[in-house]
Amino acid sequence: MPNEVLLPFVVERLREGHTATLPLRGRSMRPFLEDNRDKALLQSVKNPQVGDAVLAELWKDHFVLHRIISIEGDKVTLRGDGNLSSDPPCSLSDIRAKAIGFYRKGRNKADSTSGRKWRLYSWWWTRLYPIRRYLLFMLYPHLPARLKLKK
Fold first, then answer.
1. Cis peptide before 31 (omega within 30 of 0)
2. Closest by Cα among 14, 34, 46 to 102
3. 83 near 28, Cβ under 8 Å?
4. Which of 8, 69, 115, 142 has its CA 20 to 30 A from that of 49?
């Protein structure tokens, strides 16, 4: 089911007080969260904070699960952990949910985002932003398919 159909339905259930577990798509939260491998446990959020991994609707039916980098008034800046640049700014009202845990590497127990392991990872990784491009290149030295030269 395409995200533009599934996610509005999920967001509505979250507003009703339910939680949701969604498989992750894309590589923007590398190196710790992987496409088609990991899942996010989401709940609605009232007061998002800097550092939270949130589900935001950047424009109609286009959602991202990225970390909050800054909040200035109503303006929120998001960036995926595996991204080198920030997303277009959104507003607090565009934040639909907060990740409260992640099921990683096929595990049946979620790593809580309020747990020591996640908080330590988050603290270090966000502070390494100035050298992130080099770290990501060391972890993923291959070129994206669209950049490979044709022979």
1. yes
2. 34
3. yes
4. 8
